[in-house]
Specification:
Blueprint (H helix, E strand, L loop, with lengths): L1 H37 L16 E11 L3 E10 L3 H11 L6 E2 L8 E6 L2 E10 L2 E11 L3
Antiparallel strand pairs: 1-2, 2-6, 3-4, 4-5, 5-6
Length: about 140
């Protein structure tokens, strides 16, 4: 009879340990997912990373999608220097498949293309605060 109680207690203890482990895992998973989703990428243009300390202006998102293609424009701002922002995108976007179009880039504008999609990153700096305008254009074939 003692063996049955011992086994029942072991099963009950193992079940509680497993339940606690699962709850902790789920809590950590949701914390990580929320943290990743709440920073690092624009909401309006999902696959464009956002420089740390820049904040997307949610009301600035313009998104137009049709059979012909897509046009997206969004702004971000923050206390980040223009050169820091431009260097970030020059280094990071090529890792995401974007090619730099050096012929059409200027001091405060970097132009990229990825397949048939164009992306312009325009940076205005004023009083240690920067405004970044992202403009994306995709023309679809028919």
């Amino acid at each position: 009879m003692e063996d049955q109680h011992f086994i029942a207690r072991l099963v009950k203890d193992d079940f509680h340990k497993m339940l606690i482990t699962i709850i902790v895992f789920i809590a950590l998973y949701f914390f990580y997912v929320n943290k990743v989703n709440s920073e690092d990428f624009l909401d309006c243009i999902e696959d464009i990373p956002l420089v740390n300390k820049l904040y997307e202006k949610k009301d600035s998102c313009f998104y137009f999608d049709s059979d012909e293609g897509r046009v997206v424009n969004v702004e971000a701002e923050g206390s980040v220097r223009q050169d820091t922002i431009l260097n970030f995108y020059l280094n990071v976007l090529p890792q995401l498949g974007w090619k730099i179009n050096t012929d059409d880039s200027y001091d405060n504008v970097i132009k990229f293309n990825r397949g048939k999609e164009l992306l312009n990153v325009l940076v205005h700096e004023n009083n240690k605060k920067s405004l970044v305008i992202f403009f994306s254009f995709l023309l679809l074939d028919h």
